[in-house]
Amino acid sequence: MATRVTPPGEAKPHLFLPDAALVRHAHIDDDHRELIDILNGMLQQADDRGMLAGAVFGDGLRALIARAERHFRDEEAEMAAAAYPELAAHKAVHAAALAHFADTLRGATGQADASAVYNLFNIVLDDLLRADLGFKSYLDATRRGDRLATSAAAR
Ligand SMILES: [Fe+2]
Ligand SMILES: [Fe+2]
What we know:
The chain contains five helices and two strands. It is mainly α. Helix 1 (28-44) packs antiparallel against helix 2 (54-81), helix 1 packs antiparallel against helix 4 (114-128) and helix 3 packs antiparallel against helix 4. The relative contact order is 0.15. The protein has a two-stranded antiparallel sheet. It is 67% helix and 3% strand. The protein binds fe (ii) ion (2 copies).
C-alpha cells in the first residue's frame, strides 16, 4: 500500500506515490505527486493527538479539490488525445471523486481527525491506482502495437 512505516525520529507519517502507480505519461505522475503533497501538508499540521484544526482541514481540502479539478481536466485531455476507449467511464470516476470531496467539505465542521485525510487519500487512490492504471495498460499496449506494426512493415 502507499503508506509506509514511520522510521524512528520521524514525527509524522507521510503518503507517497508508489512506483507501481506510475503512469509515465505527460504530466500525470507529477500531478498525482502534487495531490499527495497537499495531503501530506495537511498531515504535517496535525497536532500530537492527530487532530487538525477545522480551518487547516477545510483549506487543505479546498486546495485538493482545485488541484484535482485541474488534474482531471488535463488527464481527460490526454486520454482524448490518445483515443482512450474507456474515457467516458474514467470521467465518471473523476466526477465521483469530486462529488466525494465536495460531500466531505460540506460535512467538515470544526476539528478533523487525521483519519479524514487518509479517507481523502483513499479517494485519490480511486483515480491514480484503480482507474489511471487502465490508461497506462492501454498506452503500453498501443506502444507495443506500434512497435509490432513498425517491425512488420520493415520486413
Ligand atoms: Fe484519472
Ligand atoms: Fe489521475
